[in-house]
Give the backbone structure.
Amino acid sequence: QVQLVESGGGLVQAGGSLRLSCAASLSIFSINAMGWYRQAPGKQRELVATISSADTPWYKDSIKGRFTISKDNARNTMYLQMNSLKPEDTAVYYCARFLTTYYNGTPRDWGQGTQVTVSS
């Protein structure tokens, strides 16, 4: 089992930026797709962005143009750069690993989550 550890969350004003990191305990990024999910209070967890093993990204419509997913295979770390943050982006953000090289809908491993709070 791969351990995933998120960091970088915090409190930011609307319009601000944060960069989330997800560190993996093993070198998996060249063979596994990865993703970021978020869960707001009282809502279901939702997929925000994914990146394939070949670095092809996908974004949820509401964050396109504001968030950027990337990864550094040498550092075993994935990132989510979040710009122009809105109060509705407030949630716990989780990173996830898929066993395939592309997103297959079924995460194999989850991180513990990092809280992002955007004040208006």
